[in-house]
Amino acid sequence: MLYSFRRCPYAMRARYTIALLGITVHLREVILKSKPAALLKLGGRSSVPQLIDIDGVRYPESLDIIFWALSQSNDSNLVNQLWPLKNSQQNKIKAWIAYNDNFFKHWLDRYKYADRHPEFSENYYRNKGEVFLRRLDKRLSRNEFLFGNDISVADIALFPFVRQFAGVNQEWFESSQYHNVIRWLAGFVNSCMFKSVVMIKHSAWQAGQENILFPAH
Ligand SMILES: N[C@@H](CCC(=O)N[C@@H](CS)C(=O)NCC(=O)O)C(=O)O
């Protein structure tokens, strides 16, 4: 059972991984302003995404859900590609995700809602976020994806946040110098997987309603 919110970047990274691995879950679309009682009743954090597995084990964060999905897949080639076996690679992927979640997300939120953070200008916040884009672009100038020519968990975990950053001023982003980031992001957001599976619209889940399968069959 996946509690999700369509536009949440954390939920997007979880849904993308689940869909790519061909795992099926029951999806409960949450409206953040009126969270369902079933989610609140779990206690503790009520952020989305959250997943409850068939044994009732709870996975309260997007990364927990990504690793849960990897553990459910029988496709060991794809699993090892997304999450390489080598410890050093895993640590680098984790470092990139931490850099995104701790540093980039901070400036992204301020850039997105600059009017709520009047201490500095929108441009100031964008410049801060660009530090991340520059590093991303450099890496992506060498390979198609962050860790070589195959997609990994790092790409999936980061692209929804870069998509939000791009969306603040699409024209600026499209004409920016970050050509490799533009190309990389376009690969995700223009894919059928993203448009027709990950971003499919659902109305808010209500207790008692029929189960919604994700990915839809
Ligand atoms: N670290 C969490 C963050 C999830 C998160 O912040 N989700 C937001 C929506 S994008 C949320 O649920 N906000 C409402 C809340 O925290 O109650 C994760 O990786 O899943």
Walkthrough of the structure:
The protein is of the alpha+beta class and 217 residues long. It has helices at 9-21, 37-40, 62-72, 76-82, 87-112, 122-140, 153-168, 170-174, 179-189, 192-198, and strands at 2-4, 25-29, 50-52, 58-59, 213-214. The chain folds into two domains: 2-78 and 195-214, Glutaredoxin (3-Layer(aba) Sandwich), CATH 3.40.30.10; 81-191, Glutathione S-transferase Yfyf (Class Pi), Chain A, domain 2, CATH 1.20.1050.10. Strands 4-3-1-2-5 form a five-stranded mixed β-sheet. Helix 1 runs parallel beside helix 3 (62-72), helix 1 crosses helix 10 and helix 5 (87-112) runs antiparallel to helix 6. It is globular. The two termini are 16 Å apart. Residues 5, 8, 10, 32, 46-49, 61-63 line the site of glutathione.
SSE topology sketch:
Layout: E1 2-4, H1 9-21, E2 25-29, H2 37-40, E3 50-52, E4 58-59, H3 62-72, H4 76-82, H5 87-112, H6 122-140, H7 153-168, H8 170-174, H9 179-189, H10 192-198, E5 213-214
Parallel strand pairs: 1-2
Antiparallel strand pairs: 1-3, 2-5, 3-4
Helix pairs in contact: 1-3, 1-7, 1-10, 5-6, 5-7, 6-9
Bound molecules: glutathione.
Concise account of the structure shown:
By secondary structure, the chain is of the alpha+beta class. It has 10 helices and 5 strands, in the order βαβαββααααααααβ. Helix 6 packs across helix 9 (179-189).
